[in-house]
Structure formats: C-alpha cells, structure tokens
Amino acid sequence: MRNYDFAPLYRATVGFDRIADMMDRVLSTDVGQQTYPPYNIEKTDENAYRISIAVVGFSADELSVEFKDGALTVSARKAAEETERKYLYRGIATRAFERRFALADHVRVSGASHVDGMLHIDLVREIPEALKPRRIEIARGDTVEVKAVETVEA
Q1: pTM of the model
Q2: Are 107 and 127 spatial neighbours (Cβ–Cβ below 8 Å)?
Q3: What's the average model confidence in pLDDT over 47-71?
C-alpha cells in the first residue's frame, strides 16, 4: 500500500483541506473496497450525471437512497422470506449492502428510479449565480460605478 503525504498541499493552499482529507480517505479505504453490487457512473450532460447500480432481486421497497453531508448512501436489506426454500444452486446474490458516494459541492440528487433490476440515481450540478462568471462593464472617465452587466454563459 502506498502512503501519500499531503503536507505540501496544506502548506501551499488555503481551504483545500477537505479535498486532501477526501483523497486520503479514498486512498486508505480503496484496498479492501467491496465490489458488490456492481455499478456505473456516467456523465449524461454537461452538468448531469447518473449512477446505475445492479440491484437484481431487490424490490424498490427494500432499497434506500439517502443524501446527507455531501455523501450519497445507497443501501438494501432483503426482507425475510416467509417460506424456507431449498436451492440446488444459488447464483443471485441478495445480501444486504451499503455503498457510499462522495458528491462535489453544488451537486444534488434530482431523482431515482428502479427499472429492470437497475437502480438509477440522477444527479445535477447547479452552480449558484454568485459563482458564475460575469462580464463587468468598464467605466470611462473619473467616475467609477460598480455594475455587473450580464452573466456570461460558460
């Protein structure tokens, strides 16, 4: 396992400690990372993403999607079966799981759907108006008037 020292990052930057902490957490927990259930993360638009998780064998009532403190948590618990089954071969895993995804600032969950054994979670990045680039009018002469003219589309 590799250890990374983020001390130079702390010495040269201000306000990025959260990113360094997140990288440290990801690098330290990645060794024993679980692989169940399989999932995809795709970019569907300039500011839109979709997480698709294979949840075969789980109903929508047995799944839970929660967003709290910048982290998206997806979990599932299989309800107890009423009758005992005798399997000759059991290849479909329906064990309980919990998977966490760290979301960037200004990313919110816009919806979730359960279709054909797949749980789709749609995410949208919404940049606040205050953070969008603006064109500033340059005044001529001695009078200085601060005024934003228009928002520049990125």
Answers
A1: 0.67
A2: no
A3: 92
